[in-house]
Fold:
Amino acid sequence: MGRTNSAWTQGRTACTFTGHRPHKFPWKDNEADPRCTALMATLAEQIAALAGAGVTEYFTGGADGTDCWAAEIVLAMREKNSALKLHCILPHEGQADRWSDSARERYFSILKRADSVDYVSRQYYDGCMIERNHRLVESAGLLLAVYNGVRRSGTGATINYARKLGREIIMIDPLTRSVRHSRGNENMP
Structure:
């Protein structure tokens, strides 16, 4: 497992999240699957390391899966560290309309407890997800990504945008849970 040290976060106090939705993982919606619980533990370990290095502002796009897991981790950590803040930048007000009841319950619970909630648009439009991802990356100097290597995906596009803007990137492979770091425009496989 990789460690995040203060050299990576020096001068950076904000982190945004990106990652895949449940259907992109082999375990789908089964969060009790040992591979899923191990991934969530790795995600929590990385967020705890960032918080320990002085990162206090966290941004999520609220998508089902990685975004919501990361948000819940930050909210749980905030109970012991009131300096931590969670900000939601959402594509449109109906983002969770077609989700399962349990996913919607989680989503709205996160929104109620977030420090801020901002919408790209009241209504869905073609491109609002991309605009949301851009705003997330623009909001923070660090990007923490759960990424399976598929470049033609929202997660892949968000990582590419973060590279273009010179952001620090921490990537977790969802299957091996290996952690890789990149600075700005460095090439990563």
